[in-house]
Design goal:
Blueprint: E1 3-9, H1 15-25, E2 32-39, E3 42-51, H2 54-63, E4 70-76, E5 91-92, E6 98-106, H3 109-118, H4 130-140, H5 146-156, E7 159-167, E8 173-179, E9 184-188, E10 191-195, E11 205-210, E12 215-220, E13 223-228, E14 239-240, H6 256-262, H7 264-276, H8 291-300, E15 303-308, H9 310-325, E16 330-335, H10 336-339, E17 349-355, H11 361-372, E18 377-381, H12 387-391, E19 394-397, H13 410-429, H14 435-471, E20 475-480, H15 483-499, E21 502-507, E22 524-528, H16 533-548, E23 552-558, H17 562-567, E24 570-574, H18 588-606
Parallel strand pairs: 15-16, 15-17, 17-18, 18-19, 20-21, 20-22, 22-23, 23-24
Antiparallel strand pairs: 1-4, 1-10, 2-3, 2-4, 5-6, 6-7, 7-8, 8-12, 9-10, 9-11, 11-14, 12-13
Helix pairs in contact: 3-4, 4-5, 6-18, 7-13, 7-14, 9-13, 9-15, 13-14, 14-18, 15-18
Bound molecules: fructose -6-phosphate (F6R).
Length: about 625
């Protein structure tokens, strides 16, 4: 979603550095971009804006370069107002001497806009953000200092917002405000920066700090002045910054998505090693402070409530199977956007938020609401400096590394692995399994980790061959049962998101209760099999029902499942893992996941979709 980069430099020109920062933010999804800069002693603010890719803005800057000692830039993902040049940030006041970029939503923008229009302010855009520029203008016009003006500004804005503001001619400082939307400060060689995501920093930034919530202040060369919303000095705590330029390249792959599909190979070993390295401290991930507290609480724990969105919701749904079957804990999973309306808060419950970014607004708001009600909340999060990682009582890092492609691939796999490991640890600490059993199960998890890429490689050429066949269809049905239904649902989300093909996922037992009416020779039906012998038998019956109606049957199955594989027109098989293998059948989806991702990738490629940045979507959904 929207991204912010603000820089104060020593060299004229900081514009290139802002562009570099915006490139780092591109992965979050955006539809337009803009930059403004100013020089010392010159009250003029110069601006360049373009709709579409950042390359359009770069081409414009190449034709008509702009320069200054301070600059602010923004990538916009439209919420209030269409994708037009007028709506691109930075936004200005009437005099053109205040420019600002904004992430989040100003909830009372309509009331403020009406009042400011009545005062004579002229608006140029349809955005909620522009209101802030005019409001600040009207406050400063009363002769208040910038510090007092910011203090009044935050008292009049409702909603969630990260703001970076430039005053014409004040090239030595930028103003910043943070309420609920992420914003970070960076200090370094020849420049100071304020950005919405750490990836926007360059190698010159030596240390950084997450701005505390409800803080405003001033960024200058090598220094920061910060105040909490109540006007007292705010403490800013810095951490050394290590720039990771390699996370920005595609590692020789055509797309980030492909790079990330292949990164799943080593992920299982890496996560299990890192989690085991926690030793006895693992209980802190659940928010417990001591082993005795953990052991008491885990014995009494009757229910876990998992909360997440999108792909993380499906990973949590697999996690619920693991926690129920392995750790004996009744577990429910709720989409964060629905949870807010129906929370039944009870004793001896543990809440878990699951998120790649750790910034998804719906999930974050549930976490905050639960914390306000003094509930215990743990997280499973990839971005370790994210708001969720900081605000939960404890969290488990997913160790997936930066995920750039909008569609989550390796982070899904990482979440599933963390859940499986966690279920084993809880089961062991409750005395449900012995240490030997725990180690044997961990070995099965690692064995399945090796299957991820083996299954992809074994089926790669068939998948590439079949992609064009899939691409001709406008609709599809995906089926599975139990844990394999979760994979079917996640695959359906991926195909919708990346190929824009309408797919419905159903538990295959539901076929006869409605969806079977859709099945004919024009309907591809993809069945995700289970390695559980009983579940498998039922899946075979459902596949026969599809076949009998002329449906175009495609199967993701396991070796030896010949009855099912023989029914299929096209099939992709996990070798060495049959219904009779001594491996937990709950791990079946893990073996299939990269092959499933590669099928979706290949179909999207045939259809020439913008794979890493699907239309209308953003990587980190920071508005509710
Ligand atoms: C789909 C996808 C999204 C995210 C969802 C939650 O491929 O990536 O559905 O899973 O927006 O994001 P996080 O995990 O960052 O909370």
């Amino acid at each position: 979603m929207c991204g912010i980069v603000g820089l104060v430099g020593q060299k004229n020109n900081v514009v290139e550095a802002v562009v570099y920062g915006l490139e780092g933010l591109e992965y979050r999804g955006y539809d337009s971009a803009g930059i403004a800069c100013t020089d010392s002693g010159d009250t003029k603010i110069i601006c360049a804006k373009a709709c579409g890719e950042l390359s359009a803005l770069k081409a414009q800057l190449h034709e008509q370069p702009i320069s200054g000692l301070a600059a602010i830039g923004h990538t916009r993902w439209a919420t209030h107002g269409r994708v037009t040049l007028e709506n691109v940030h930075p936004h200005f006041d009437c005099s053109g001497t205040i420019a600002l970029v904004h992430n989040g939503i100003i909830e009372n923008y309509h009331e403020l806009g009406t009042m400011l229009k009545a005062e004579g302010h002229i608006f140029k855009s349809d955005t909620d953000s522009e209101v802030v520029a005019h409001l600040l203008e009207s406050i400063l016009d009363r002769g208040l200092s910038p510090k007092k003006a910011l203090h009044e500004l935050v008292s009049r804005l409702d909603g969630a917002y990260a703001l970076v503001i430039m005053l014409g001619g004040r090239s030595d400082e930028l103003l910043f405000v943070r309420k609920r939307s992420p914003l970070c400060l960076g200090l370094g060689k020849n420049k100071s920066a304020v950005v919405s995501d750490l990836v926007a920093f360059d190698a010159d930034i030596e240390k950084y700090a997450i701005i505390p919530d409800q803080t405003y202040g001033f960024l200058r060369m090598g220094e920061v002045e910060a105040y909490s919303f109540d006007g007292f000095s705010a403490e800013i705590t810095y951490t050394p910054h290590i720039h990771n330029a390699s996370s920005r390249d595609r590692g020789g792959h055509a797309h980030y998505m492909l790079k990330e599909i292949y990164e799943q190979k080593g992920i299982v070993h890496r996560i299990v090693t890192a989690l085991n390295d926690l030793g006895d401290e693992w209980i802190k991930g659940l928010g417990y402070t001591s082993a005795s507290q953990a052991s008491e609480s885990l014995k009494k724990l009757t229910h876990v409530d998992l909360i997440a969105c999108g792909t993380s919701y499906y990973a949590a749904s697999l996690g619920a199977f693991f926690l129920r079957d392995i750790a004996g804990i009744d577990t429910s999973v709720t989409r964060a956007s629905e949870f807010a309306y129906n929370p039944i808060l009870m004793k001896n419950r543990l809440y878990g938020v699951v998120s790649q970014s750790g910034e998804t607004a719906d999930t974050l708001e549930v976490l905050r609401a639960l914390k306000r009600q003094e509930q215990s909340v743990f997280g499973i999060v990839n971005v370790e400096k994210s708001s969720m990682a900081r605000e939960a009582d404890g969290f488990f890092a997913m160790h997936a590394g930066p995920e750039i492609s909008v569609a989550s691939t390796k982070s899904f796999t990482a979440q599933v692995v963390v859940f499986y490991w966690l279920a084993l640890k809880i089961a062991h600490s409750k005395g449900l399994i012995t240490l030997q059993q725990l180690q044997a199960s961990e070995a099965e998890l690692l064995w399945c980790g090796n299957k991820i890429e083996e299954t992809l490689e074994n089926n790669k050429s068939s998948i590439e061959h079949d992609a064009a066949w899939f691409a001709q269809y406008k609709t599809c049905l995906f089926l599975g049962r139990q844990e394999s239904f979760i994979l079917a649902a996640e695959a359906a989300l991926k195909l919708k998101e990346l190929a824009y093909i309408f797919v419905e996922a159903f538990p295959s037992g539901e076929l006869k209760h409605g969806p079977l009416a859709l099945v004919d020779q024009n309907m591809p039906v993809v069945v995700f099999s289970s390695a559980d012998p009983l579940v498998y038998q039922k899946i075979v019956s459902n596949a026969q029902e599809v076949k009998a109606r002329g449906g175009r049957l495609v199967v993701f199955g396991f070796q030896d499942q010949t009855a099912l594989l023989n029914l299929a027109e096209k099939s992709y098989c996990v070798s060495g893992f049959s219904s009779y293998t001594q491996c937990d059948s709950l791990l079946g989806p893990l073996c299939m996941v990269a092959a499933m991702h590669y099928l979706v990738y290949s179909i999207a490629k045939v259809l020439e979709r913008p794979i890493d940045k699907p239309r209308n979507l953003a990587k980190s959904v920071t508005v509710e």
